[in-house]
Amino acid sequence: MAILIASGSSHFEVEDSAFGIITKMRYISTRGGCSPQNFEQVLLTGLAPDGGLFIPQTLPTLSTDEIRAMQSLSYADLAFKVVAPFVDGEIPASKLKAIIEESYAAFDHPEVAPMTKLSENEYLLELYHGPTLAFKDFALQVLGRLLDYVLVKNDQQVVILGATSGDTGSAALEGCRHSERVEIYILHPFERVSDVQRKQMTTVPGENVFNIAIEGNFDDCQRIVKAAFADQTFLPAGKSLVAVNSINWARILMQIVYYFYAALKLDAPDKRVSFSVPTGNFGDIYAGYLAKCMGLPIDRLIVATNKNDILHRFISRNNYSKSKLSKTFSPSMDILVSSNFERYLYDLFSKNAAVLSDFMENSNKEVLSVTSEQWTQMKACFDSSSVDDNTTCDVINELFTKTSVLVDPHTAVGVKSGRDCVENSSSPIVTLATAHPAKFSEAIQAAGLNKPDLPGHLKDLFNREERYTVLPNELSAVTAFIRKHS
């Protein structure tokens, strides 16, 4: 029997248990104009045909006893346990388990996502032990293998199109480049990613790999990708687009797992845990929100932003208005249009697709806000903070001086935001360490510290040949490029 939960800002329809009760998992669009889809369909579709984002029609939940029983599981076994109800048999259980195990076997730490204690009740969750040194590997290593399985089964060829603010691109290329059934086109903002981030993308070999530098910012790249998905007539007959951005539901799904993993390490479900999440596109923290809705005892979810603080302004002041995009030391958060926020707004607007569509259509207005009741509901679940570059560097230096722990600028924003929002708490707070510091040496050196070394498998990164094409900030230029090479 389905029930409705309304704790804080949660209004998901959920099932009594994640195991044995759900008969069919289906996904619906936030815009309300698409029939329910199965897991395989949303994996291959990405953006819904009506322009919305896919979310589960029902959300599996876990009881306290079920969560407690997970405490001894390895990361891969936990991932299978959390993910299986969402896949709902579309991929055989034995194959799904093998895909997950193979994906995380490539990580360079036996725990996959180890925890580091900074001080009493303050922890880092290290999410940079994958092949491209960023949290995106947790989803995209699995996504690439899921696509391979489905495409072989269906004898399909697809075109992968994605936009990146720095880390998604390299993780997507690493996860998908081995497939003989895909062509991969990744857009990044020209001269707006770190040198390491750019090199990780543009030195990937393969005749099916194409890097495009757009003369604009990440929001421009994201806009072009969404427009291309809306009208795919530029593609050759028989081919369709697949998304690797976090608009693809599978990306969000795999990120739910590490919230459970961290909380279980800190004695969940018997202890509540807060999370501080560096975020620009809202995907990573939305995964935490879903974990909370599923029954994980999360106290506070903290949205950590840099100078590009539209999410912080909305949460703290009910002001969802755009400002000029700034280039910062934490480029993966240099975003003004947070795509995944739409998924949360659908819930905030009580699943009313018409209200959500109207809100999104008016998002370019000078000032946009929600009702006082909705704002109060949002603040019951989320806190937020904005951290400038100078403070980011101060935190990097302070942490290294006091603890010998070196963090990247995004993680430093998360640490500072967590400290600002949760003071004198008796429950632990976990900051998601989203990237290896060696990816952002400019910020590390600006913090007065030595340039960090790249891990062994990337030691020769700056000696590798780069391949990328600079294109104008125009949809037509991108679609013509894809049409020429597809």
In words, what does this structure look like?
The chain is an alpha/beta fold and 486 residues long. The protein has 3 domains: 3-105, threonine synthase, domain 1, chain A; 115-130 and 250-446, Rossmann fold; 136-248 and 460-485, 3-Layer(aba) Sandwich (Rossmann fold). The chain contains 18 helices and 15 strands. It has helices at residues 39-45, 64-68, 75-87, 93-105, 136-154, 167-176, 195-202, 218-230, 249-265, 283-293, 310-317, 341-348, 353-361, 372-379, 389-403, 409-421, 441-446, 475-485; strands at residues 3-4, 13-14, 27-29, 54-56, 115-119, 122-126, 158-163, 182-189, 209-214, 241-243, 273-278, 298-305, 382-386, 429-433, 469-471. The strands form 4 sheets. Strands 5-6-14-11-12-13 form a 6-stranded mixed β-sheet, sandwiched between helices. Strand 8, helix 7 and strand 9 form a beta-alpha-beta unit. Helix 3 (75-87) crosses helix 4 (93-105) and helix 9 crosses helix 10 (283-293). The longest helix is centred in the first third of the chain and has 19 residues, at 136-154. It is globular and about 60 Å long.
